């Protein structure tokens, strides 16, 4: 979005994968980092909000099989346990946080060749005000490319998230069809 600003990406998103429940995803990411060209975007956020952000990482595998195998780590049944561990870590980092939740993102039909998403919600209180932090992780395979998106927002799922995913995946699909 035009009113957003960008800054150099803070820390690597795979640092969040340190819990034992994320072992399989972390192993796949570590292997891809060694063997696969990838690019992490800058961190984007609107100028008026410190709790809203968006970033993505793109992996360009040599073939569809490699991309499919990598993507499978995120759609595997054990992936939910990883995102539950991440939700607990987020809750533990917030003062006066309630019980976090993890739910599948269900509106990804037709996005790329394969797509999966997880939404973490963490209710918490700050300065006497109750609010909820929403953190969405979306992973899309488009041909031999896998795109990982991370979004955060307060009080609701980030409205700009789905259009951002669609735009980036669309650009990758267009590039693949013209290659």
Description:
The chain is built from 4 helices and 8 strands. With 179 residues, the chain is an alpha+beta fold. The strands form 2 sheets. The protein has a 6-stranded antiparallel β-sheet, sandwiched between helices. The protein has a two-stranded antiparallel sheet with strand order 1-3. β6 (114-126) and β7 form a beta hairpin.
Q: Please tally the β strands and state the result.
A: 8
Report helical residue fraction: 25-40%
What oligomeric state best describes the polypeptide chains here? single chain
Give the count of helical stretches: 4
Mean pLDDT: 88
SSE pattern, N- to C-terminal: EHEEEHHEEEEH
How are the SSEs ordered, and which strands pair?
Blueprint: E1 4-7, H1 23-35, E2 38-40, E3 43-46, E4 53-60, H2 64-75, H3 79-93, E5 101-104, E6 114-126, E7 129-142, E8 145-154, H4 161-178
Characteristics:
34% strand, six-stranded antiparallel beta sheet, alpha+beta, two-stranded antiparallel ribbon, single chain, 179 residues
Give a short overview.
By secondary structure, this protein is of the alpha+beta class. The protein has 4 helices and 8 strands, in the order E-H-E-E-E-H-H-E-E-E-E-H. The strands form 2 sheets. It has a 6-stranded antiparallel sheet with strand order 2-4-8-7-6-5, with helices on both faces. It has a two-stranded antiparallel ribbon with strand order 1-3.
């Amino acid at each position: 979005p035009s009113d957003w600003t960008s800054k150099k990406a803070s820390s690597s998103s795979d640092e969040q994968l340190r819990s034992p429940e994320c072992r399989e995803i972390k192993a796949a990411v570590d292997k891809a980092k060694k063997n696969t060209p990838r690019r992490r975007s800058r961190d984007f956020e609107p100028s008026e909000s410190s709790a809203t952000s968006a970033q993505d990482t793109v992996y360009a595998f040599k073939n569809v099989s490699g991309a499919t195998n990598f993507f499978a780590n995120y759609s595997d049944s054990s992936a939910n346990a990883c995102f539950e561990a991440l939700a607990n870590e987020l809750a533990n980092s917030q003062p006066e946080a309630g019980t976090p939740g993890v739910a599948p993102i269900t509106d990804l039909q037709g996005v790329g060749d394969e797509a999966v998403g997880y939404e973490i919600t963490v209710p918490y209180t700050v300065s006497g005000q109750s609010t909820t932090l929403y953190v969405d992780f979306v992973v899309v395979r488009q041909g031999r490319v896998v795109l990982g998106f991370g979004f955060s927002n307060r009080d609701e799922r980030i409205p700009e998230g789905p259009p951002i995913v669609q735009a980036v995946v669309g650009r990758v699909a267009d590039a693949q069809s013209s290659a």
